[in-house]
Specification:
With 350 residues, the chain is α/β, with parallel strands linked by helices. Helix content is 41%, strand content 21%. It contains eleven helices and 15 strands.
Length: 350
């Protein structure tokens, strides 16, 4: 029997230094509420204060108010603080984090994880005849996740992962790194060299590395195609000449731009220092919960949450996996002098 009252607790920072982020996420969740929910679905915003202690207290409130599902929290340490209570009560958590280590056993990480991004862009490069891929990654958790994903993607996509180089993101000079890669490319010339380089970084480091790679790996041969991740999807980078011709994965432009336009019309401009994708994740979680409630599945069983056909959200198609991760349909964009252009669509189905 359908439940008469389905409650989704939205755990976000509504006070403290991160309150503006929490309000933006609340706005996005309310958009989904207005667009999709029926009268049985209730959204209950609760303040985490942006701290682990605040998240635990908000979780206690959610339980006392009869929540059927938890949307949020935002930060990894907040998710860890609510996990025990959620699992004890059997409440699924659709967290807005990109930390895959918190996922599993009813805890879902809805953030855009590097693994699927790397798989998508290496697969596209392979389809365009770019078989021999090198990876330049920061020596941190993100960089290591990218390198691991590249190794797995190369096996699945039939690419040749010829080099993985880690670097200290605090170092000012990458000349030696690029020289080492140039020597590697020359040594591999007989088997195709290096025709694509994935740079898992952003900002000034990315621009510096891109410039060095374009000039430093030539040796009379065409420079390799540059590949990136969603870190590249930033306005100043999308127009940077050093990245011209580079490919990176991103949500389909049409769906995400439509979401942003609806948000701005309803609430005004988004926060300039916060990725719009984060608001889209809050929308996706709420829309998914509201849709399942409308369909009469207020218990949020794993079989419903992990529907193999997935759901349509602000960033296009997505679905939750048994491991507690979000798999998303991503398009491919190319950086051109006119900005980033979508050159390969996101898949219509999984």
């Amino acid at each position: 029997m359908p439940k008469n009252d389905v409650r989704a607790a939205l755990l976000v920072p509504l006070s403290g230094p991160q309150a503006a982020i929490g309000q933006m996420l609340t706005n996005a969740a309310q958009m989904a509420l207005f667009e999709i929910a029926d009268t049985r679905f209730r959204l209950v915003p609760l303040d985490t204060k942006g701290t682990a202690e605040g998240a635990a207290q908000a979780m206690t409130q959610a339980v006392s108010q009869g929540a059927d599902i938890i949307l949020g929290p935002v930060f990894s340490f907040e998710v860890k603080a609510v996990t025990a209570q959620a699992q004890e009560r059997g409440l699924p958590v659709l967290a807005f984090t990109t930390d895959r280590t918190v996922a599993g056993n009813g805890i879902y990480a809805l953030g855009y994880l590097p693994g699927p991004q790397v798989t998508r862009v290496i697969g596209f490069a392979r389809s365009q005849g770019r078989w021999h891929v090198a990876v330049l990654a920061r020596a941190d958790d993100y960089g290591r996740a990218v390198a691991e994903a590249a190794q797995q993607a190369a096996v699945v996509q039939g690419a040749d992962l010829v080099a993985v180089e880690f670097y200290d993101p605090a170092q000012p000079d990458f000349t030696t790194l690029v020289q080492r890669l140039a020597l590697r490319r020359a040594a591999l010339a007989a088997r195709g060299g290096i025709d694509a380089v994935l740079i898992a970084d952003d900002g000034p480091r990315l621009r510096t590395l891109a410039g060095l790679l374009t000039t430093g790996l030539g040796n009379g041969a065409a420079p390799p195609r540059l590949l990136g991740t969603l870190l590249w999807d930033e306005a100043r980078l999308r127009a940077d000449p050093s990245l011209s011709g580079g490919w990176y994965p991103a949500p389909p432009a049409a769906s995400h731009e439509a979401f942003e336009q609806r948000y701005v019309k309803a609430f005004g401009p988004m926060l300039p220092h916060v990725p719009a994708l984060l608001a889209g994740i809050a929308y996706d979680a709420t829309a998914m919960a509201a849709l399942l409630a409308r369909q009469g599945r207020g218990d949020y069983a794993a079989t419903s949450l992990q529907s193999p056909i997935g759901f349509l959200g602000a960033g296009g198609l997505f679905r939750l996996t048994p491991a507690g991760l979000a798999e998303r349909g991503l398009a491919i964009r190319e950086i051109t002098p006119q900005g980033a252009q979508e050159i390969a669509p996101a898949p219509d189905t999984f």
